[in-house]
Amino acid sequence: MMAVKEIMAPITEEMKEFEFRFRSSMKSKVPMLDKVTHYIIRRKGKQMRPMFIFLTAKMLGTVNDKTYDTATLVELLHTATLVHDDVVDDANERRGFFSVNALWKNKIAVLVGDYMLSKILLLSIENNNSELLEIVARSVREMSEGELLQIEKARNLDITEEVYFNVIRQKTASLISTCCEGGALSVNRKDLTEKMRLFGEYVGIAFQLKDDIFDYGTPGNIGKPTGHDIRERKMTLPLIYVLNNSSKQVRKEIFNIVKNHNENTKKVKRAIDLVIENGGIEYTYKKMLDYKEKALNLIAEEPESEAKKALVGLVEYTTTRKK
User: Fold this and answer.
1) pTM of the model
2) How far apart are CA 166 and CA 142, in angstroms?
3) Section 31-38 average pLDDT
4) Is the peptide bond before 219 cis (omega within 30 degrees of 0)?
5) In 3D, which of 63, 61, 74 has the Cα closest to residue 12?
6) Can you list the alpha helix ranges (DSSP code H) found in the chain?
7) What are the pLDDT digits (tens) for 215-271?
8) CATH class of the structural domain 4-320
């Protein structure tokens, strides 16, 4: 498996330039807003989404201003959704640090997220990027629909596997597919935008399935099981599979724990054990590998290059990461 440093090697300079441009895009005349956005930037994650954009663009052509615009718009959207998600989830932490709403309260967090969304519109108009704005706007719609669909289904615990894949395709995969489609569009490869959109979608689904597995701490003993999803009554694939493919007795016991005892640590541990024993993790792991292979097959015919090698490494990383 390639390390993140190796994956970033072909786009080191591009990522540095992007950092500068992204910070500039966040600047405001309102001191409080600058203070909040500065806090957010300092606690950024691995920046996988800009990496997908730059590696896609470099594999298919030459990185240019439009590529930087794409990365800036997507990162603004990603950051806005994280800030809003923390409000929706009433979360006080994000990546081990206080969330924006924990430090500045919900009202300010929502307004900061709104400011970032407005910057997407303004930057698109300023740079005459209507095609790019269309892709990003579609992603906003899909993420909102996916989140609402999940909330609706989670109330009754009646989500099917088909509906679940629709949820994660919209909620998680749509942003990564936007990265890859936007990366291709930025280097004028319109002939490949649909293929790269699908590539990103498959990678995004595999990424989410990896997250589903983390909650159970397997396979290969990846950390201790956390049971967060069960506590929050989130219907993820391991749980859905077992509820649809196990004995009536097992289904009844799991359903009862998730519905009525999701705060009881001992009961949650029992539900985790039942999901593992009845093949939920094994099934999800296989599905994750299937989507990873489908994604890699889509770019198999592209000419070999350092960027392509790193993009393949990034796909591998999404399914082998430890957190």
Assistant:
1) 0.87
2) 10
3) 72
4) yes
5) 63
6) 4-8, 12-26, 31-42, 48-60, 65-88, 100-126, 130-156, 161-168, 174-186, 193-214, 228-231, 237-244, 248-260, 265-277, 280-298, 306-320
7) 787 444 444 556 677 777 778 899 999 989 989 899 899 888 888 887 888 888 898
8) mainly alpha
